[in-house]
């Protein structure tokens, strides 16, 4: 079961269920500080540390992320010095075959066993450039963690990858438009709980996809033969 009810608390800036978090170097949603506060372990991917430090300073929060990971070519020296003083560990990873998001997830897997299916909230993973968004979706799908536990947040959307099989999703009250996107190749999909359900329909890019759908109940089910991308538009 994929429980997204905690997202309601995030949007209202309330500390919610314990989670792990990764902060990327892209636009943060207004509730980024709520994600940070709810995190047992927080990782900044390179320049994401600059953005998180700005949020912390604006909130008057003296805390710091647990770790900074990446090749550190986007990390400001002042940020580096400040986070070191606050107690963050700085981890330079030079592997050029992986992006900083992938490096951060690999690093996180060394500290939290993927077998425990931890919830990983990713800030700054979507929105803006489409190539970056798709690269991050691909990274989430191939990470050491169950992709359904890696939740990527922008200001008004949460995105995750549903593995093949039957996926029951508990939606937050703030969920509005829903999408099922076969970005990993054609997938035979059946759904229940949506305004426009499908049964045994092949979805494919360039063919049929499910977009701008709505839920008729808070628990929905997606059965898919191959991984698909699931999106929920969020509104207070």
TrEMBL record:
Keywords: ATP-binding, Kinase, Nucleotide-binding, Transferase. GO terms for biological process: thiamine diphosphate biosynthetic process; thiamine metabolic process. One of its GO terms (molecular function) is thiamine binding. Signal peptide: none annotated. Residues 165-228 form the Thiamin pyrophosphokinase thiamin-binding domain. The keyword Transferase applies. It comes from the Eukaryota. NCBIfam families: thi_PPkinase (TIGR01378). This is Thiamine pyrophosphokinase. It comes from Carpediemonas membranifera.
């Amino acid at each position: 079961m994929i429980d997204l009810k905690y997202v309601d608390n995030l949007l209202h800036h309330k500390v919610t269920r314990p989670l792990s978090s990764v902060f990327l170097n892209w636009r943060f949603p207004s509730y980024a500080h709520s994600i940070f506060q709810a995190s047992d372990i927080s990782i900044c991917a390179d320049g994401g540390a600059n953005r998180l430090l700005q949020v912390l300073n604006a909130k008057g929060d003296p805390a710091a992320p647990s770790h900074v990971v990446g090749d550190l070519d986007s990390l400001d020296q002042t940020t580096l010095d400040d986070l070191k003083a606050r107690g963050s560990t700085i981890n330079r990873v030079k592997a050029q075959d992986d992006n900083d998001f992938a490096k951060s997830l690999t690093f996180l897997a060394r500290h939290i066993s993927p077998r425990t299916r931890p919830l990983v909230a990713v800030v700054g993973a979507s929105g803006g450039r489409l190539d970056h968004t798709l690269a991050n979706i691909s990274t989430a799908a191939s990470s050491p963690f169950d992709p359904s536990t890696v939740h990527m947040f922008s200001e008004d959307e949460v995105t995750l990858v549903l593995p093949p099989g039957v996926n029951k999703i508990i939606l937050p009250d703030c969920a509005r438009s829903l999408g099922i996107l076969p970005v990993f190749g054609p997938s035979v999909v059946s759904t229940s709980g949506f305004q426009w359900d499908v049964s045994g329909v092949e979805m494919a890019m360039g063919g049929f996809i499910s977009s701008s759908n709505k839920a008729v109940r808070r628990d929905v089910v997606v059965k898919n033969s191959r991984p698909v991308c699931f999106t929920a538009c969020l509104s207070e």
